[in-house]
Amino acid sequence: MKLDVIKLDGKKAGSVDLGEEIFGLEPRADILHRVVRWQRNKAQAGTHKVKTRSETSYSTKKIYRQKGTGGARHGDRNAPIFRKGGIYKGPTPRSHAHDLPKKVRQLGLKHALSAKAKAGELVVLDTAAADGKTKTLAKLVRDLGWKRALIIDGAEVNADFARAAANIEGLDVLPSMGANVYDILKRDTLVITKAGVEALEARLK
């Protein structure tokens, strides 16, 4: 699969061969769904918490005698049956993460890259380098028509480029090891540098 390489100013800088086994697959929604769900569940904080009857602030004194009142028998006001009493079987802090085989995760990334390539939303950039000025980079991005874009670089992101991109709305920059299905699918345009393509192909082969 051949794709043109461009520079940040929009000019062509040759072409690159993309591996069919990574960028040429027929995207499968079921695999993408499984990987995204795994990612989002793993990221969920799971800090939701309710108070049980041992944690509410009422007295533990029996509210009235057991017999002779004509009412139902009760212990203290912390019981779940009462207003402001403890909650029965409510949520407690826990991890929402679940296991997903490494092969499925890897396949999900391949299908995400293939989905962008098939939709024509994949751009290969010669190099992601800037002078560190947000204004300059913002103009280049605007001229290229990237409104919601993810840029994947090689092993490390250029520090000046990362600083310039930090305040541009809708622009995310990640190193190749940070490439993931959720971030790829979330953005309208996927931009990968030549170094990023090499690193991804080495990671996924």
Outline the structure in words.
The protein is α/β, with parallel strands linked by helices and 205 residues long. The protein has helices spanning 20-23, 29-43, 102-118, 134-144, 159-165, 181-186, 194-204; strands at 2-6, 12-17, 122-125, 149-152, 171-174, 189-193. It folds into 2 domains: 2-45 and 98-204, Ribosomal protein L4/L1 (Ribosomal Protein L4, Chain: A, 3-Layer(aba) Sandwich), CATH 3.40.1370.10; 50-90, no CATH class. A 6-stranded mixed beta sheet has the order 2-1-3-6-4-5. Helix 5 (159-165) links the parallel strand 4 and strand 5. Helix 2 crosses helix 3 and helix 4 (134-144) crosses helix 5 (159-165). It starts with a strand and ends with a helix. The mean pLDDT is 93.
Number of helices: 7
CATH superfamily of the largest domain: Ribosomal protein L4/L1
What is the strand arrangement across the widest sheet?
2-1-3-6-4-5
CATH fold topology of the largest domain: Ribosomal Protein L4, Chain: A
**How much of the sequence is in beta strands?**
5-15%
CATH architecture descriptor of the largest domain: 3-Layer(aba) Sandwich
Distance between the termini: 16 Å
Globular, elongated, flat, extended or rod-shaped: what is the shape?
Answer: elongated
Oligomeric state of this protein: single chain
Radius of gyration: 27 Å
Task: Work out the number of β strands.
Answer: 6
Main pleated sheet: 6 strands, mixed
Q: Can you give the helix content as a percent range?
A: 25-40%
Would you tell me the structural class of the helices and strands? alpha/beta
Low-confidence stretches: none
The H/E string reads EEHHHEHEHEHEH
Total separate domains: 2
